[in-house]
Amino acid sequence: MKKFALWAKLLIASDKDSNRMFDVVSVEKCSSYSYEEVKGALDKALDEIDALSFVKPGMKVGIKANLVSAMAPEKSATTHPMLMKRLCERLMELGASVVIGDSPGGLYTPMFLNNVYKTCGLEEMVKELDPSGEKVTLNQDYSISNGEFMEAVSIKTFIYTGWLDKVDAIINFSKLKTHAMMGMSCAVKNMFGTIPGATKPEYHMRFPEEKAFANIMVDLNEFFKPVLYVVDAIDGMEGNGPTAGEKRHIGAVLASKKPYGLDMVCAELIGMGYSDVGTLVAAGERNLGPKSVSEVEVVGSSLAEVKVPDFKRATIHQSITFEGKGIKGAIASIGIKLVYNTKPMVKASECVGCKKCYETCPAHAITMVAGGKNGLPQIDRSKCIKCFCCQEFCPKGAMKVHYNLLGKFANRINHV
Ligand code: SF4
Ligand code: SF4
After folding, report:
1. pLDDT score for 339
2. 211-237 average pLDDT score
């Protein structure tokens, strides 16, 4: 009898494992940022998963937006203010107050952040929505906190932006974009903005290898555990993301209570898969996230209705695979390195000499030399760790990802 009970238990466990589902993700079609459309789509996406059931009157909710840089909403690099407005309205209706914040690359100071808020359209949105400034605010707390997270894979101790300690719950509101280092920037990657801007380069230096870096994002998601994740995928960014790519219409708003299934679905929408996205692989290897979109329950619109299969990838990462053992894995890894032996390279005709790349480079590999309008960056290849921060933060898209011939050929094949 005992034997039968054990066998039944094992059978149930293995059955559970084979049918394991990670997270419920709601997907709603939304063709524009008009208030009416946004309201309809976001409300549905939230209500389908009972997303706001955690809100209690008097609660202070922090929305971690994606404000990667001071860029206008039309550039499609940052969380759109219209979606943000509707989410704030819903929270206010439930009696909560809201703080919106982020720490983009660069200085974490009032002057720097206020310019970001203004350019990203959030300053105006908040003024209109709550003229009293009592219910919805843009974060002005620039304190720093110390984090300790012993379950972390990459960062057991770290510093983070202190405003997140002063809210009762965190909502992660990301933008769907390509990303030179991680393949895709969405829900999981968005948590890197909890690290103060000037400290981010230090992490790039400490963790130059993709897998360790991807694990930082997973660590941060597990540490902060946002109660809700929302994705602005009405217009995304393709190509040279997360800041220098082109706007590409996708037409969807997504929500989930967990980040990994949500990112899996977002990857699927833009024609990517598990092994194309560093953060998905890191989460999958830790058994926190799915390895296939079939392990995610999707509600709302069908993925086929919103899928953009020819979405242009970030040029560096066509397929990052951290798996593969023995000789096969070694050959695959050498092959990937040979094909995707990319490096940052400035296009002099587009460079305005603003020095942002020079200031951001964690390896101090860039010097400004005479040339162009106001000087040109020169990269010391022996120091460069290929973190692509210079490409990410160049406001003019002048720092490009450069390929060798094999890489160019492989890209062509990938995009046909
Ligand atoms: S030159 Fe660019 S890619 Fe190289 S280390 Fe500096 S910021 Fe990173
Ligand atoms: S490459 Fe970009 S960030 Fe660097 S100086 Fe030129 S415009 Fe500025």
Report:
1. 52
2. 97
Contact 232, 262 (CB under 8 A): no
Segment 130-146, tens digit of pLDDT:
999 999 999 999 999 99
Q: Is the pLDDT of residue 88 over 80?
A: yes
Confidence of residue 407 (pLDDT cuts 50, 70, 90): low
Structure tokens at 391: 């490409």
- CATH no. of 340-414: 3.30.70.3270
Residue 350 CA, closest ligand 2 atom number: 7
Structural domain boundaries in the chain:
20-306, 340-414
Would the CB of 398 count as within 6 Å of ligand 2? Answer: yes
Query: Which one of the ligands is nearest to 346 CA?
Result: 2
CA of 21 to the centre of ligand 1 (A): 39
- In 3D space, the residue among 146, 80, 70 whose CA is nearest the CA of residue 105 turns out to be 70
DSSP H stretches of helix in 307-369:
326-339, 356-360
Ligand in closest contact with the CA of 355: 2
CA angle 396, 397, 398 (to 5 degrees): 85
User: Which residue in 260, 267, 275, 261 sits closest to 324, CA to CA?
Assistant: 275
Q: Give the residue with greater pLDDT, 343 vs 365.
A: 365
Class of domain 20-306: alpha beta
Q: Which atom of ligand 1 is nearest to the CA of 388?
A: 3
Residue-level pLDDT at 19: 52
Q: Burial letters for 106-126: b for 16+ Cβ neighbours within 10 Å, e otherwise?
A: bebeeeebeebbebbbbbebb
402 vs 322: which has the higher pLDDT? 402
- Residue (of 87, 22, 27, 30) closest to 255 by Cα position: 27
| Residue whose C-alpha is closest to residue 150's, from 97, 223, 94 | 223
